[in-house]
Amino acid sequence: MVQSLTGEETMIQIRSPIWKSRSVGIAEHKVGINGVDLEITYEDKAKKRIYPHVYSISRGDLGKYPTQTCRNVKLRIVPIMDLTVKEYR
Questions:
Q1: For residue 6, is pLDDT > 70?
Q2: What is residue 3's predicted lDDT score, i.e. its pLDDT?
Q3: Does 24 map to a domain?
Q4: pTM for the whole thing?
Q5: Which domain holds residue 23?
Q6: How many domains does the chain have?
């Protein structure tokens, strides 16, 4: 569910983190005015999520991280440990 023009935080799903740096790529066009909520849906062999919680980051904090372009999409590369846990699962 992405509603970046409404002013609310948006929810995105990340299929797999960037393992080398233990980070995620967040597309700038999917970030709402207040920020973004995200969940990492990657599962291990036992079908358990490695990162089961809902995480969040504000738009202001997102601007501190480096960008990377992938398939003409500008991504902010954010370490998972810098994300705030919004909902424990």
A1: no
A2: 43
A3: yes
A4: 0.84
A5: 10-87
A6: 1
Whether residue 40 lies inside any domain: the answer is yes
| Structure confidence at residue 9 as a pLDDT band (50, 70, 90) | low
Instruction: Give domain status of residue 4, yes or no.
Output: no
Q: Could you tell me the sign of the dihedral formed by the alpha carbons of 29, 1, 55, 69, in that order? A: negative
What's the one-letter identity of residue 29? Answer: H
Contact (CB, 8 A) for 42 and 51: yes
HEC-encoded secondary structure of 52-64: CCEEEEEHHHHCC
pLDDT tens column, 14-68: 999 999 999 999 999 999 888 999 999 999 999 999 999 999 999 999 999 999 9
5 within a domain of the structure (yes/no): no
∠67-79-2 over CA atoms, to 5°?
70
Burial of residue 35 (CB within 10 Å: 0-12, 13-18, 19+) is: buried
